Amino acid sequence: MAAAAGSGFDGDVPIFHAENLVSNIKSINYSRTFLSIISGVVAGIWGFTGLKGFVFYFLVMMVASLGLLAKAKFSVHTYFDSWNRIVIEGVLGGLMVSLIEAVKN
């Protein structure tokens, strides 16, 4: 991940580099899409349907969020403009991918 926030003067609003921020958000979306496919396949193989499938998907996304936080060294505002980018960015979009993969299996 590239640092999205630049160093400014004390008391100033942090400066965000748009290219780095967009690159970081793309990385989140790609990783969540990949994990959605994998979790859908695993949920289908293990027979997780209905509520169990939803819970499994959200557990995988929670672990992914923790992994992204660890990769950012728990310094979210250095790489992203808000916590929402790591916690909920792409979770609902990936849910559809996961459901499709679970239905296929």
TrEMBL record:
Protein topology in the membrane: Multi-pass membrane protein
Kindly list any coiled-coil regions of this protein: none
Q: Name one GO biological process term.
A: autophagosome assembly
Which residue ranges run through the membrane? 30-48, 54-74
Give compartment(s). Answer: Endoplasmic reticulum membrane
Q: What is its main location?
A: endoplasmic reticulum
* A Gene Ontology term for the protein's cellular component: EMC complex
Keywords from the named record: Endoplasmic reticulum, Membrane, Transmembrane, Transmembrane helix
Question: PANTHER family from the xrefs?
Answer: ER MEMBRANE PROTEIN COMPLEX SUBUNIT 6
Q: Which family does it belong to?
A: Belongs to the EMC6 family.
* Protein name as annotated: ER membrane protein complex subunit 6
Per the UniProt record, the source organism is Digitaria exilis
Classification lineage: Eukaryota, Viridiplantae, Streptophyta, Embryophyta, Tracheophyta
